[in-house]
Specification:
About 40% of the residues lie in helices and about 10% in strands. The chain is mainly alpha-helical. It has a domain of about 80 residues.
Amino acid sequence: MGTRTDLKLPKIFRTNWFRKDENGKFIWPGYGQNMRVLKWIVDRVRGKAGAVESPFGLMPTYEEMTWAGIDFSKDKYLNIMNISRDGALAEAAEIKTYFDGFGSHLPPELEAQRKALEERAGKAPQVWSMAG
């Protein structure tokens, strides 16, 4: 893929359904609610949904999600969307360890993306939040 411009590459999205609250309970309301995020992804791919930039990339705002039929407060949503600098840096380090296993076979573009993540995370506040 590298520098080719004739390819239509897929969009890549990442989720974390497993964040827990201070009592150790999952914050996201459950597997059956994942369709709400998937709807945002489809709308985003089709150019019908917005996003805000974070150290991890583009993320949906509370207003961009569909909440009909569920009581999930904006405060709760903002809490699960927070990103800690230390957590992001730790993830970049874990990815490096994984990439190291590929040796010279790792495409340089992948390491460049990992380094970009590490740089963005390093410049982020201690806890990045959509709330500001």
